[in-house]
Amino acid sequence: MAPSAAAHHRSHSLLLLQKLLNLRDKASPLTLILDTLEQSAQPVLNEFMTRAKISKTKIIFISLSTHKKPPLANVFIRGRHKTLQQLAAEIIPHVTPSPSSPNQKNLLLITPLHPLLSHPHLLPTFLQSIIPPSTSCLLVYHLDIPLLLSPSPSYSPTPLQILTHLSTSILTLSSLPQTLASKAAADKSLPSPTFGLNSGREGVLVGLHHPPSPSQSSQKDGVVITMELRRKSGRVVQEKFVLFPSSSSSEPQIKSVGALMLLSDHPAFSTVGNDEQEEDMEATFNLGLTEKQRRDREGVVLPYFDAQTEVGGGEGGRILYDMGREDDFDEEEDEI
């Protein structure tokens, strides 16, 4: 039996994200990850690095905020207080293929980007110099952190616009609990709740929480990923997924990949089975017809049925009416 259109769409969408996470077939040389204080990009970065480690891809981590090397990174570069030229000079030797391993694949992660965006017009040249054909690059951009930009003409594009234009894929992250809360409010025709800085409560990040127990981490740690993948043909593929990060094993260097599913397949969003539930609902009345009622309905002759079937000779719309004994015959109306 051939798969349905919905099943084919589901499999195709999941395959595209799997190829992107596994860095297969140069799915995306430059991926922009947009996160917020409410949903950090760390679970997605861990997923990329875990899959890269499994495929023996060299992981080069450029940090502009922390001085701690991630356990899965092969190379760690501190980029704070460095210019783009200095940072590029330090990165290029690690991404340049060597004679001993000419086919070595590299994963380059830069997080966060804000310290490098003071001169956005230099970004294209910088990115082009550090991303050879064998390297895939991940850029993390915090949407809710303001930028201090140098004076520039009013018509100059913003750093986010430049990054969006250069990227071959964009992953916008949001919290699964917040997405479910918004869906529940929409189902009840209630205003969508606000979280984080949008809540307007100074000094409080509403909705920012950590699971109290590991048993709840499967739902609370879910990350909603809105993928925008730009194909070579120019076509844009958009889809929403949920990533459930895997729990760390006893050895920090060995991890399993997380679980992926379409957001539409999540129990709170899925519509599969709703029709069956509606049929099973008990009610005090039944809108359906029995077989006898159906036969009786088919045998009913509609009013003026003869006038509808005998139309012809220019008499379309003629109504046949048989007067009864109680009818009052009016000659004037008959003449009209």
Automatic annotation (TrEMBL):
The keyword Phosphoprotein does not apply. It is found in: Cytoplasm; Nucleus. It holds the Pfam family Elong_Iki1. One of its GO terms (cellular component) is elongator holoenzyme complex. One of its GO terms (biological process) is tRNA wobble uridine modification. Belongs to the ELP5 family. Keywords: Cytoplasm, Nucleus, tRNA processing. Residues 315-336 are annotated as: Disordered. Residues 325-336 have a biased composition (Acidic residues). InterPro entries: Elp5 (IPR019519), P-loop_NTPase (IPR027417). One of its GO terms (molecular function) is tRNA binding. This is Elongator complex protein 5. Its main location: cytoplasm. Pathway: tRNA modification; 5-methoxycarbonylmethyl-2-thiouridine-tRNA biosynthesis.
